[in-house]
Amino acid sequence: MAKVIEQLGIADAVKNKVVYRAALNGGVDLVADGVADIGIYPASEVANAKGITLVGALRAHCSSNVVYGAASLRTMRRPRPRRASSPKFLADPANRNRWKKAGFDPPGG
Asked: 0.85 cut: is pTM over it?
């Protein structure tokens, strides 16, 4: 996060105010409770958090992109192609809204 703050050009302005706390380790609570004015977190960690509003993404040069992969085991006794863990289910365009609601970019853009 220190790198992002530097890339945004605000490091000097916020150096005495910034608190580094992961969203899932109480950081979101600091924002929701008004202790912190803003939080910069992955959208997937705050998409459904209570008491905060997701306002947008950082500029592309300040963002990091995490890519997740999925695979099925060929040795599964009873493959369940409709399971939420199957690559077919994950990539199904019918599930795009689920991805968005959870704060992720849907597979395939």
From this structure: no
